[in-house]
Structures are given as structure tokens and as C-alpha cells.
Specification:
Elements lengths: L1 H20 L1 H13 L15 E7 L4 H10 L1 H8 L2 E7 L6 H10 L3 H4 L5 E2 L2 H6 L9 E2 L2 H4 L5 H7 L4 E4 L12 E3 L10 H6 L5 H17 L7 H22 L4 E6 L1 H9 L4 H23 L6 E6 L3 E10 L1 H6 L3 E4 L2 E5 L1 E6 L2 E6 L4 H13 L6 E5 L1 H6 L8 E5 L2 E5 L8 E2 L8 E4 L6 E7 L7 E2 L3 E2 L3 H9 L17
Helix pairs in contact: 3-4, 3-14, 11-12, 12-13, 12-14, 13-14
The structure holds zinc ion.
The site of zinc ion has 6 residues, from loops.
């Protein structure tokens, strides 16, 4: 009982904090967003369906997707009635924001430019403890995304759109109902961490009830990362149900982030991560049910994906230490004296910038990486030609991926190159297996081939394919319409 009272008190304080700090901001955005709610769609007769529901089951492997299917006759029947690929190549780096941008724009990172989650200066990279999490300021991916999204094309055609938790739609005036992506930090209060980046008053309608629901369901988790995991997915799905049922939205994208977050905090095989897979299943069923209740299921194409893989880690490797020890980075106290090369960590990938752009520096970096490959847990070194073939962009010059168990950390650590500690904060990190970032894609609904295995595909193909379903005008240079449509 006392924990419930404690939770309730925290909830009230959090809400008050939120009302004072964030409502004026949220209200401004709400006005923007609600202006575009009442819309009249213009159909051309080219559309295969008038509704699309696009879901990201964050971070699950193709095997876990099969487990979800096996546990739910409703989902299995739906997925079996359409096309599926367990060989969808996601972006490099294997990361949610990069993949969200690629799937909504049909462009590779080289075009849309989203390759990192955090806005960070060289000082941040080298001196702020990356694994303290709270010190990072999240990038506004919508502002930074250089390519048009399919939601822009939907807006021009007068369609009603919803986006819940997708990274590149934060505060986007072309989205009718929006809950932007949020950065949840370890020790920010619920109000500070969760509501900080919320876009609209619409978000409140769903997030506060979800918070109360989840607090009542599991009061002991109130201040833990587990609560954030529970609350976000619940809130996103209830917002999606609302726009499907009450607003007959035409394009809705729904992020489910629980497995990703729970794996980061507790490990991929933890009970917390396991229970998020159960919730992914229930939530997917809720979305199918909402579409049926709205009477739009027969006119809806469902599409779902997993954006990247996630792997357990047991040690941090401080890879900029290698450049620092060899004179490519020199510092005095917490001040950079000179830096000719440094890397930025994206979990199990390390993106290396040749700061002075000299060919000799690049050769030196290559040599250091090759010589220290085993000692620093480097699985593969990706040179320019390989990054080019992945369309990864030119914001960095080289990259490494980590062997199993290793997470690359970019701040300098004077006390050692490797840290093994049972108390390390990250228990799992984003990455790819040596074949690449291969995950799952499924699509079903009117006009889609039944029981079709669509084989190799790329995440950038999703946008043009969904655009084809809705018959929109949209051009992208990366992806192509998938061969999943009946003749
Ligand atoms: Zn993700």
C-alpha cells in the first residue's frame, strides 16, 4: 500500500512538473497539429486500399517474430494471408532512428542523413560518460531528415495520418495525430523523461491514462526503466486504436519499443524483455481488432517490420582510447588539444571520423585498427568502399563492428580500455550479425499476394510499397515497390 501511495505522490508531482514546464510547448504544437485534422481525402482510383497500418516491433529477430506468430492464431492467420520476408536488410548503422528515416522516406542514410541519435560535440564524445545516458541531448530527427517522407505525400492528398513514437515525425505539422519519439533517460523523472518531447495534447489523452494504468498494474516498477517500457507501448497502441476507430485514419505508424528498451536495460533474455514480447503480441492483436471494429479491416493493408537486431553485451570497449594512446587525439585535462581522428559509438558499431581529412591519417587509423583488432573486440572494419555499397553516407570515413559481447564506448577512459562489470548499465546493444542487419518484414491486406515469401529486400523498399498501396504521388531514389502485389 505504501508503494502505491508513493507512486501516486510521484505521479502527482510528475504531472504538476509537466503542467508547468511542458504544457505551453505542447499546446503550441497541438494547435499546429489539430489544424490539419479535418481533411478530405482525394482518391484517384489507383489505390489498393484506403488504409495502411505500419508497425515497428523494435529490435526483434526473425526467430522471435516466428514465436509471436506461433503464440497467436489471430496474428498467424493475418500474416499467413500475405507476404513475408525474413531477409530484410536494414540500415547501417543498425539503429532505430536511421531505420525509421529510411522506411518512411525510401532513402538510404546517405540521402536522409540520419545516422546518430545524439547531438554531440567532440567534447561531449570524448569527455562525457556515454553510459551515464542522461547527459545526451537527443537529435530532432525530423528537422535533420533531408528527405521527404511518405506522410508528406499523404498530407498533400488530404489523408488523415497518425504517428506514434516514430523518430522522424516528431512535431511534424503534416501528421494529423502525433506522439513524437521520446528519449527516456535513466534517472530523469517520469515527467521530465517521458513528456519532454511529446508533441501534442493528443499525447496526454493517451499517455497519462497509460501511465496510471501501468502504475496500478505494477506499482513497484514506477520509477524504474521497466515502467517506461510498459507505458510507452501501451500509450502508443491506445493512441493508434483511437485514430483507427474514431478518426478513420488512412495512414498510421505505430512504434513498439519495449523489447528494445528492456533488452538495453535488462538483457535480451531477461524476464522483462520476455514480457515485452507478450505485450507486442497483445498489442498487435489490439490493432487488428481495432481495424475490424472500425469496419475498415477489409480496406486496410497492414505492414510490420523489425528495425534492427539487438545483442547482449558483457563489456565496454573504449575505442577512442586507441587513438588517444597513439597520439591521434591529445587532451589536457578535459580539453582537446588536437584531434586528427575519433569515433562515435552507435552500440556495437563505431563510426570513425578522420577529422583532419588526411590520407596519411586514414592509413594510420586503418593500421591501428588492424593491429589491435583482437585486443579491442573488433569484428569487422568497414572501409569507404563497403560503406559506399551500404549507402551509409559521407558523414564519417570508416566504421567498425564489434565481436559478440562487446559494446563500443566513445568517451575516453583513463583507467583502462575495457570495462567488465556486472553493474554496467547497458546489458544489450544494437547491432548486426556478420551478414548485415537482416530482420523481418510482413505485409497483408487487399491486393497483396497470399502466402508469399518475398525473399531478399531492403528497408528502403517499404516507403514506395506503402505509397503504391495508397496510390500516392511520391518519388524516392533509394527503394523500389516490392513484388508483393497480386497481378
Ligand atoms: Zn529500434
Amino acid at each position: 500500500m505504501s508503494s502505491l501511495m508513493y507512486s501516486t505522490a510521484k505521479l502527482l508531482i510528475g504531472t504538476a512538473q509537466f503542467l508547468i514546464q511542458d504544457v505551453p510547448h505542447a499546446f503550441n504544437n497541438a494547435l499546429d497539429s489539430y489544424q490539419v485534422v479535418a481533411r478530405t481525402p482525394r482518391w484517384t482510383g489507383q489505390e489498393k486500399a484506403k488504409h495502411v497500418i505500419f508497425i515497428n516491433l523494435d529490435a526483434i529477430s526473425p526467430e522471435q517474430f516466428e514465436e509471436i506468430r506461433a503464440s497467436s492464431p489471430m496474428i498467424n492467420e493475418a500474416v499467413s494471408s500475405g507476404a513475408i520476408s525474413s531477409r530484410m536488410l536494414g540500415t547501417f548503422p543498425a539503429q532505430t532512428s536511421t531505420m525509421h528515416a529510411s522506411t518512411l522516406t525510401g532513402e538510404y542514410p546517405e540521402r536522409h542523413g540520419i545516422y546518430t541519435v545524439f547531438e554531440q560535440s567532440l567534447d561531449d564524445i570524448l569527455f562525457v560518460d556515454q553510459c551515464s545516458v542522461t547527459s545526451n541531448a537527443a537529435v530532432n530527427n525530423r528537422v535533420d531528415c533531408k528527405s521527404k517522407k511518405l506522410t508528406d505525400a499523404a498530407f498533400r492528398r488530404g489523408l488523415t495520418t497518425g504517428s506514434f513514437g516514430f523518430c522522424t515525425t516528431h512535431q511534424d505539422p503534416h501528421i494529423s495525430y502525433n506522439i513524437g519519439d521520446m528519449t527516456c533517460t535513466r534517472d530523469a523523472g517520469i515527467a521530465g523523461g517521458i513528456f519532454k518531447k511529446m508533441s501534442t495534447v493528443f499525447a496526454l489523452k493517451h499517455m497519462i491514462p497509460a501511465m496510471i494504468r501501468q502504475t496500478l498494474l505494477a506499482p513497484s516498477t514506477y520509477t524504474s526503466p521497466e515502467m517506461i517500457v510498459r507505458l510507452l507501448d501501451d500509450g502508443y497502441v491506445s493512441a493508434a486504436e483511437d485514430v483507427i476507430l474514431n478518426h478513420r485514419a488512412h495512414f498510421v505508424c505505430v512504434q513498439q519499443v519495449g523489447y528494445d528498451l528492456a533488452s538495453h536495460c535488462f538483457g535480451t533474455r531477461s524476464p522483462q524483455a520476455g514480457s515485452t514480447l507478450v505485450r507486442y503480441t497483445e498489442h498487435l492483436e489490439r490493432l487488428i481488432r481495432a481495424s475490424r471494429m472500425a469496419g475498415t479491416y477489409e480496406d486496410t493493408v497492414f505492414s510490420l517490420m523489425s528495425d534492427h537486431l539487438i545483442f547482449d553485451i558483457d563489456r565496454y570497449v573504449y575505442l577512442n582510447n586507441l587513438f588517444w594512446r597513439n597520439g591521434l587525439i591529445s587532451v589536457a585535462g578535459r580539453k582537446v588539444i588536437s584531434c586528427s581522428a575519433y569515433g562515435e559509438s552507435v552500440g556495437k558499431s563505431f563510426l570513425i571520423h578522420i577529422a583532419d581529412k588526411k590520407r596519411s591519417t586514414k592509413s594510420r587509423v586503418m593500421e591501428l585498427l588492424q593491429q589491435n583488432q583482437d585486443a579491442f573486440g573488433i569484428e569487422r572494419i568497414l572501409d569507404w568502399s563497403e560503406l559506399d555499397s551500404l549507402h551509409a553516407g559521407t558523414q564519417y570515413d570508416l566504421a567498425c563492428t564489434a565481436v559478440p559481447g562487446v559494446m563500443f564506448v566513445h568517451n575516453l577512459n583513463l583507467s583502462g580500455d575495457i570495462k567488465r562489470d556486472r553493474k554496467i548499465y547497458f546489458k544489450a546493444q544494437h547491432g548486426q550479425d556478420p551478414r548485415g542487419n537482416l530482420t523481418t518484414f510482413a505485409i497483408w491486406g487487399p491486393g497483396i499476394k497470399r502466402g508469399y515469401e518475398s525473399g531478399d529486400m531492403n528497408g528502403v523498399d517499404i516507403a514506395p510499397t506503402l505509397v503504391h498501396v495508397l496510390g500516392l504521388d511520391f518519388h524516392c531514389s533509394g527503394g523500389k515497390v516490392l513484388d508483393v502485389f497480386e497481378e
